[in-house]
Amino acid sequence: MSAVAVDGVWKFYGDYPALRDIRLEAAPGTCLALIGRNGAGKTTLLRIIAGFSRPGRGQIRIFGNQPRETETRRQTGFIGHGISVYDELSALENLTLYGKLYGLPDPRRTAGEWLERTGLARVANGLVREFSRGMRQRLAVARAFLHDPKVLLLDEPFTALDDKAIAVLQGLLRDALAQGRTIVMSTHQLREALELASHVALLTRGQVAFHGARTPEMVDDPGYVYARYAD
Amino acid sequence: MRFARQVWVVAFKDLRAELRTKEAINSSLAFALVILLMFSYAFDPLADTTREMSGGLLWIVFAFAGTLVLNRSFARELPNDCLDGLIAAPVSGAALFLGKALANFLLVLAVQMVSLPVFGIFYNVPWTRQLPELLLVMVLGTWGLTIVGTVSSALTVNIRLRELMLPMLTYPIMFPALLGAMQLTAHLVGGNPIDEDHYGWLKMMIGFDVIYTGVSMVLVETILVG
Q1: Which candidate from A73, A87, A100 shows the least CB-CB separation from B80?
Q2: Angstroms from A158 CA to nearest CA on chain B
Q3: CA distance A187 to chain B (A)
Q4: Mean pLDDT of chain B
Q5: Under an 8 A CB cutoff, do B6 and A80 touch?
Q6: pLDDT at residue B46 greater than cutoff 90
Q7: Quick one: how many helices (H) and strands (E) in chain A?
Q8: Strand order in the sheet with A57-62
Q9: Rounded-to-integer distance, Cα B120 and Cα B51, Å
Q10: 3-state secondary structure string, chain B?
Q11: Which residue of A155, B180, B189, B200 shows the fewest CB atoms closer than 10 Å?
Q12: Above 80 in pLDDT, residue B226?
């Protein structure tokens, strides 16, 4: 059974089809990099997979279930363009809140552990509105990993991260893959993404232009996929 | 039990965030007190007609001041796309909605509890004489206002003119419950107990709250996700 299956998905904004008959699959333990130029439909597709909006046609399955089922949401972690943490709460309060919403047995302890892993332990009680952009992004990473999801959906996860934070995130993603987690991520930072990805899907104007295993050529030349399949 | 805990987690988060910033409660309280003061100058507080319509004046103030709290309810989730975080969590739309409604209810009720004695002084009415019944009417009216206001806040969260649209959606739907609250409040602040003639209004308010709570809990998932 696929971890993530996208079957004939269309999405319309008015009459405009933002996604056209998208068919993709990600097997358990794989990392699928969604690449494409601005407006290609990557974020729209990730939001539909995450269950934030419904497709016009087609369906999504995560381990055979629909995205909005409670059990599916428990198994899914998401990082979007926004960091989904509250400026008025401290880092620890934010993670504890999500820990409680995900029904973790000891939300405060788990929150503390993830603050440690993402290098935010010393500012655990600081309000998020006082954090730098990179610190906020690291907190978003901690929030997404907090409940140990089987599927990670990441929309531009490397944006705003400095070199050290990128290394931390790549380490976390490698660990997740080693533990059999599935990752679907959209990115413009091809080098970082292709180092992790086992598979690549290129979207152009809402359609899949290429979907297949990552090859050594793609790692050597991150522009290879665009040159070969998009232009 | 799990549902109740989720409701409380969402409500506690909203209350904590609001008490840190005091954005909504300060503006709502200031608005309520200023309007009560202005009305007390506009109408002679010693006139019988003023006392008769004082319940209506009070609920107009509560409804407008309450809207300032309700406007912030889902708008609070917009910075940093926090609504995505809540929608992604394994929490039912009904629990999310009830949590937000509960937080709004407590905030609006707090504004009312401060405004009520001020109203008693400005309008020279014996509002404490039927206090338990008056509190019951305030709780029922405020729950109706927060339920309709919270679901309207969810509906309007992604539109530009949400501050305008929320009262335009809320007040027409609220009208029956608001009318009942006005009638009963005017009667109670005059020092009279609820009699046979007024039980109908009370029943109508209870029915309104039950029906709109149920309908909102069913609809909110569709409102949030489409």
Answers
A1: A87
A2: 16
A3: 19
A4: 92
A5: no
A6: no
A7: 9, 9
A8: A16-26, A4-13, A57-62
A9: 10
A10: CHHHHHHHHHHHHHHHHHHHHCHHHHHHHHHHHHHHHHHHHHCCCCCHHHHHHHHHHHHHHHHHHHHHHHHHHHHCCCHHHHHHHHHHCCCCHHHHHHHHHHHHHHHHHHHHHHHHHHHHHHHCCCCCCCHHHHHHHHHHHHHHHHHHHHHHHHHHCCCCCHHHHHHHHHHHHHHHHHHHHHHHHHHHHCCCCCCHHHHHHHHHHHHHHHHHHHHHHHHHHHHHHC
A11: B200
A12: no
CB contact under 8 A, B226 and A78: no
Query: What is the predicted pLDDT for the residue at B196?
Result: 87
Contact A201, A33 (CB under 8 A): yes
Angle subtended by helix axes B2-21 and B23-42, to nearest 10: 70
Q: Which residue has the tokens 């009208």?
A: B175
ipTM: 0.89
% of chain A residues with pLDDT over 70: 100
What is the pLDDT at residue B77?
93
pLDDT, average across residues A206-213: 92
Type of residue found at B105: F
What residue type is B182 in one-letter code? M
What are the chain A neighbours of B17 within 8 Å (beta carbons)?
Answer: 86, 88-89
Burial status of residue A35 (CB atoms within 10 A of its CB: 0-12, 13-18, 19 or more): buried
Inter-chain residue contact A51 with B9, CB threshold 8 Å: no
CA A92 distance to own-chain centroid: 22
Inter-chain Cβ pairs, chain A and chain B, closer than 8 A: 79
For A97-162, strand residue ranges (E) read: 151-155
Q: Convert the pLDDT of each residue in B3-34 to its tens digit.
A: 999 999 999 999 999 999 998 999 999 999 99
Distance between CA atoms of residues B84 and B210, nearest Å: 29
